[in-house]
Amino acid sequence: MFSFSFFSLETWTLLISFISIFVLYGYWSFGVFEKLGIPGPKPLMYFGTIGRYNNVYYLDDMECAKKYGRVWGMYELRKSVLAVMDPDMLKTILVKECFTYFTNRRSLILNGDLYDALVFSEDDHWRRIRHLVSPSFTSGRIKEMFSLMKHNSHKLTENLRSKAHGGEVIAIKDFFAGYTIDVLGSCAFSVDLDTINKPANPLITHAEKMFKISVPLFLLQGCFPFLSPVLDLLGFSFFPKSTTDYFKTLVEKIRAERSDSSKQNFSDFLHSFTSSQTGSKENPNKGLTDHEVISTVTMFVFAGFETSANTLVFLAYSLARNPEVMKHLQREIDLTFPNKAPVQYEALMQMDYLSSVVDECLRLYPTIPRLDRVAKETVKINGITIPKGMAIMVPVYALHYDPELWPQPEEFKPERFSKENKQKINPYTYLPFGMGPRNCLGMRFALAMIKLALVEVLQNYSFSVCEETEIPLKMDPSGLVGPLKPIKLKLMMRSMDDAEVGKGN
Ligand code: HEM
Predict the structure, then answer these.
(1) Which residue range is the domain that position 354 belongs to?
(2) To test the ligand 1 pocket, which listed residue (131, 176, 433) has its Cβ within 8 A of the most ligand atoms?
(3) How confident is the model at residue 500 (pLDDT cuts 50, 70, 90)?
(4) Which residue in 120, 94, 482 sits closest to 308, CA to CA?
(5) What dihedral angle (degrees, nearest 10) is formed by the CA atoms of 397, 457, 455, 353?
(6) Looking at residue 202, which CATH number applies to its domain?
(7) Separation of CA 439 and ligand 1 centre (Å)
(8) Ligand 1 lined by 125 (C-beta under 6 Å)
């Protein structure tokens, strides 16, 4: 029989106190939204409201939006987070009050060696870096990099030829991931990686590793945030040290080679950051420091890789499932670049239907499904008090599936973004690249890279669904918006007749 004398009275007292504190601490932060009168799912001890309705976090947001409307309160582990998808409030948070109250994203502290990357930087530090790197993303600069992109899109198209000849079923991401990392490698540091032909490239392995956040570390810092500075000091980071070290060594090696070489004219990001670099730690206001150059270049690969590769995958999937849209797009491509003429930057960026197809794909699959900001001060917006330090989460995925804003939201309808319909769209209801001063810096670059690959591939091939294509898709619960299993499609050569039809229209 169980005996209480097994432990002494002191031990029992300690044990009961410990359990009580543990339980109290697990619930302690959960009254915030009740006090503010904001609805939301009921939190569970320590876990908060994570995955209450769906284990895929952005599908969970959709369920919450259905139940609680366009503003609700949730708890990410013990952290209170205000979800906002009301377009008027979004305008205030993302644009009007960006500089006063909502300049920064949430700080997770454990950013390791990427502590000074643009994405994580705050206030004046962010303003300074954004100001310094923005000139690398003007249309003029992207046009200069277009030939680097084209070099890689040709390789992609050639690589797909044997697959299309045999009408093979392919895991489409293998090809688009190779293309994306090759473009980023050449535009970031003029390195011709040729991943498309030699897939075992360490850069792609490291770029993929960046998004694999350690779950135990996430739970530890989320449940016991006061431990974060200690974990940081001990060298724990969400970004694997082997990966940040790899990028650091790569950038340093390239810089050393360049300083020894007579060739000094490169059209890549690294060159534009270093050539404007006149600052140092002691005099940081002038240019990027050496460390900031490394973090910024690394971050570009990180920010641009999975987002762009997944968008291309979802484009292929959506077109394969909607062959009439694909034919319409191929007609526009054939008219713009007759007889498979080389793709030109200006003409590409002016293709209306292509633009509608890409926009609609990013509505259905916004690869970054949530935005986040943090309130610097207590502020009242639309009658809702947002306390200082409160994290704001914008559920972009749920916003893009709101049936009042997007009728039949599950359907792929590029005409929603036709020239005349686009003017009627409230910009705060469509946020695949975020919004305001803190929006995606690489948007124009990403669109050029994505459109180029899509056009060149569709000049030559068509996609179709096959037995191996999963419909509907099961989504990956972790990381960015992506399928749980690789998407498989059939690739076919475009027939001559098909191309002729294009010419006649
Ligand atoms: C389809 C591709 C892409 C998508 C959907 C995408 C989406 C986003 C989103 C939603 C944000 C957050 C915006 C906000 O908080 O308002 C963001 C930030 C950012 N993105 Fe992208 N992105 C893409 C490609 C790229 C590429 C190719 C690069 C760089 C080469 C890039 C660089 C950045 C940077 C640096 C930020 C942080 C900006 C800042 O904090 O000031 N992105 N992106």
Answers:
(1) 4-504
(2) 433
(3) very low
(4) 482
(5) -60
(6) 1.10.630.10
(7) 7
(8) no
**Residue 300, ligand 1, Cβ within 6 A:** yes
* Ligand 1 midpoint to CA 299 (Å): 10
How far, rounded to the nearest angstrom, does the alpha carbon of residue 417 sit from its chain's CA centroid? 21
The one-letter amino acid at 458: L
Torsion sign across C-alpha atoms 419, 423, 424, 428? positive
Please give the tally of structural domains in the chain. 1
Q: Which residue puts its alpha carbon closest to atom 20 of ligand 1?
A: 440
Lowest-pLDDT choice from 32-36, 108-112, 362-366, 458-462: 108-112
Q: How confident is the model at residue 498 (pLDDT cuts 50, 70, 90)?
A: low
Q: What is the dihedral of CA 206, 212, 214, 215, to 10 degrees?
A: -170
Q: 407: cis peptide before it, omega within 30°?
A: no
User: Was 440 annotated as part of a binding site?
Assistant: yes
pLDDT digits (tens, 9 = 90+) for 109-156: 888 888 899 999 999 999 999 999 999 999 999 999 999 999 999 999
Instruction: Tell whether ligand 1 has an atom less than 6 A from the beta carbon of residue 296.
Output: no
- Bigger pLDDT: 47 or 495? 47
Distance, CA of 296 to CA of 279 (rounded, Å)? 15
Residue 342's nearest CA partner among 199, 213, 162, 157 is 157
Strand partners of residue 371: 394
CA 420 – ligand 1 centroid, Å:
27
- Check pocket membership of 137 for ligand 1, CB cut-off 6 A: no
CA 446 / ligand 1 centre spacing (Å): 9
pLDDT at 501 over 60: no
pLDDT score, position 27: 85
